[in-house]
Amino acid sequence: MIQLPSNNEIDNVFYKADYLKRIVAGLIDGALIIAFILLILISEILPNEGFPPSFILLFPIIPFLFLALYRLISLFLFNGTLGMKICKLILLNKDLLPLSKQEIINAAFFLLINDVRYYDK
């Protein structure tokens, strides 16, 4: 006799997200970070006699820091970034379980982690 999976088991089936969805989610998040940085530049720095020298030295690093901080806060508070929510993606570990705190920190700062994958909701 063939045994059918229970409803509980069917609800826990996840499929790996395709690359297009992952790219679109990344572009949404990147556009959000760029808009936030431009807003800060326009409202705070440009009206005040231009850029300070320390800002010019750190400018290449700032978008990456903002992105990591944005991902960290979003993953801790909402279990996903805005791009992930729009594209209906979730991050799960290799056991298809929600991420632990250490995995969230790793996923926020390092975009390619071996034990963390994107899945469709």
What does the model show?
This is RDD domain-containing protein. It comes from Solitalea longa. Its main location: membrane. It is found in: Membrane. This protein is mainly α and 121 residues long. It has one domain (15-120). It is 57% helix and 8% strand. It is built from six helices and two strands. It has helices spanning 7-11, 19-45, 53-58, 62-78, 82-86, 101-109, and strands at 89-93, 116-120. Helix 2 packs across helix 4 and helix 4 (62-78) packs antiparallel against helix 6 (101-109). 12% of the residues are buried. The mean pLDDT is 82.
Task: Produce a short descriptive summary.
Its main location: membrane. By secondary structure, this protein is mainly alpha-helical.
Mind sketching the topology for me?
Blueprint (H helix, E strand, L loop, with lengths): L6 H5 L7 H27 L7 H6 L3 H17 L3 H5 L2 E5 L7 H9 L6 E5 L1
Antiparallel strand pairs: 1-2
